[in-house]
Amino acid sequence: MMTVQSSEKHRLTVTSPDHRVEVLVPLAVGRPYSYLAGDLQLSPGDFVTVPLGRRQTLGVVWDDHQQNKDVPEHKLKSVLQRHDCPPMSAMHRKFLSWLAGYTMADLGSVLKLTLTTAAGIAPEQGTPRYRAAETVMDGLSPKRKSVYEAARNAPDLTAKSLAAKGGSTPALVKSMTVDGQLLVIQRAAPLPCTEITHLKTDLDLSNDQVEASKVLTRALIDGGFAPVLLDGVTGSGKTEVYFEALAEAFRSGKQALVLLPEISLSSQFISRFERRFGIKPAVWHSEITPAQKRKIWRGVIEGRTQCVVGARSALFLPFADLGLIVVDEEHDASYKQEDGVIYNARDMAVVRAKIGKFPVVLASATPSLETMQNVWAGKYTHVTLTSRFGAAVMPEVHMIDMRTEKTTAQTFISEPLRAAMQDRFERGEQSLLFLNRRGYAPLTLCRKCAHRIECPSCTAWLVEHRKTGNLHCHHCGFQRKLPKICPECEAEDSLVACGPGVERIAEEVYAFLPDANILVLSSDITNSPKALEDAITAITGGDIDVIIGTQMIAKGHNFPKLTCVGVIDADVGLGGADMRAAERTFQLLHQVSGRAGRADLPGQVYLQSYMPDHAVMKALAAGARDPFLKIESEERAEASMPPYGKLVALIISGNKEDQVKSYCRDLARTAPAYNNVQVLGPAAAMLSMLRGKHRWRFLVKAEKEAQIQKIIHDWVGTVKKPSSVQLKIDIDPQSFF
Q1: Per-residue confidence band for 310, with pLDDT thresholds at 50, 70 and 90
Q2: Does the N-terminal or the C-terminal CB of the chain have fewer CB atoms within 10 Å?
């Protein structure tokens, strides 16, 4: 056996006695495969290319070298190539393995989350640039001489730029390279966020912010795993506080990751980050280009990119030396990934910090009950900011009882809210109307036969959009023209739009504020990061009088002139069987209310509700967050629901309903029978048809000490699943549709 110590940082080469290595590939496989190392010196974490069937695929040398020891050596294929890339850290490999076990996902599928841009494995060659050779060569033609002189005067130009300066062509430039008259320099574009030097400490922070930042920086200085809840009212300056923690991480040479729940929050955040640190962070989300992803991925694994700000998928970047994670708006449901590998990025961020033995900061004005329970249990440090920064004060909340308001069937804005908006417009201030419904109307109904127009592929009504003139399904993307006659009874001119969406609210505002500049913000209208950035700039600059938006405008934004917030339908999230409905409604309405009065001008909030006596509405009106959470906590504890118990959802789907039902019956017959485990179902899902597939569900409820993953694994392993049926296992489900 030969053991070789490499000169690369953190690299220990290990070659097994039979020259085998275990390689995990980014496919739906549950374990690594054995290969022969051959003449290659390979270590855990190395990126390699291996043969798999008739193709070649990228893989990572994994840690278990004994798994396939019984396979004869002559049956093994050899690793084809080791890539010139720093290895994946042991911490990251351990994190991926833990996540696969917890979520019951294939280990290879989890690895794929890290290898979203395989091109980052290879060092970037860069764009060829040209400079003059040191020795001037005799006998150059006039054209060559002109190009040569241009290269001497302006080195490192591209072939096109050099040819233009020399009055020639790119072909001549390349010919002069062959003849040795010009030298080629491969200069790659710089990696993002590599030199953070602006670590000033003379900041204008409040006393509360200073004390809070000391707790965070002390956690970094002391080292080790330290989960901290940064709990501050909206506008209290939580971002500036955790910026101090970021600065301490950068001073110590560590990398940092900031998770944001929505891309929409990134534009203002990036500007604030650049003002604080003198450089833009690397920004990671699904909308950036492959070239940008490649640079960030390479910068992260080389340890040169110091800070990444991103959506939940940024959690899987292979950081070389991660030393801090911040999860902003930690309560947000957007952190839950519902497709593919199902995980909650907030919870997995805490796990990653624990494995890596470094601090993690969870920031929110409305912390989740799960996080608060960890605070009450003494597992998380609790840091609070109880007042807004500077002269700003919390807005006054007005509850409007819509049961007593005199509005017509086609009017959705109450008179008190309308008067407040008119007053703000006359003062030159801004108003925000919030309604979490896209489009013009959520339902199209026949007045003659009461037929409701539904999606042919989903159990959902089609939503009218005036922008396209079509009816849309918000689940599968199906569209159709608004019919002129009822599809059911064929009555003409009988179809009516029922209920409001943001487009319909805008129509109503135009009627009583015809001179106002009105902006509608929803994902189908402001559908790109650039469009959203332009919209945010217009609002911040005071060019917009009235903003009408969905939840994309409800959190994180800071608009100094916004003083009036109106919630059109405060009750919209309280229906259904979701155990978190009250908690989420409180969080969302508290966050949108917090957009008002964040600067010197005082803010007013108007909540339109048909249930003003509901616990959520009372808590919002009184500003009684903690008493509300205590009541929620007691109800969950009594029912042994999360965070005091465990839930697992099994979602079974397929094109043929009879096959789905048959598999559900087989599962029901073999359901686990334990005192601390209860299996509910099967039952048709709330969305019983989604994208053409029939859907049924089980819900498994268990006490906290139950080994639920093992129980589920043993259960589903006893029943043969037809290949045409899909089974999705959701540990800690956040939605129940």
Answers
A1: very high
A2: N
